[in-house]
Amino acid sequence: MIQASKDGGDGLAGVLAWTHDVRLADQQGTEIVREATPAERAAVAAALGVLSCDHLKVRYTLRPANKDRYLLTGVIDLAVTQACVVTLEPVTARSSESFSVELWPNEDVPAIDAALVGDLDGDEIEPIDNGLVAIGRIVLENAACMIDPYPRKADAAFSWVDEAGQTSDSGNPFAKLKELRRKP
Question: Which long-range contacts (CB under 8 A, 24 or more apart) does 154-158 make?
Answer without folding.
Answer: 156/84, 156/86, 156/87, 156/89, 157/86, 158/86
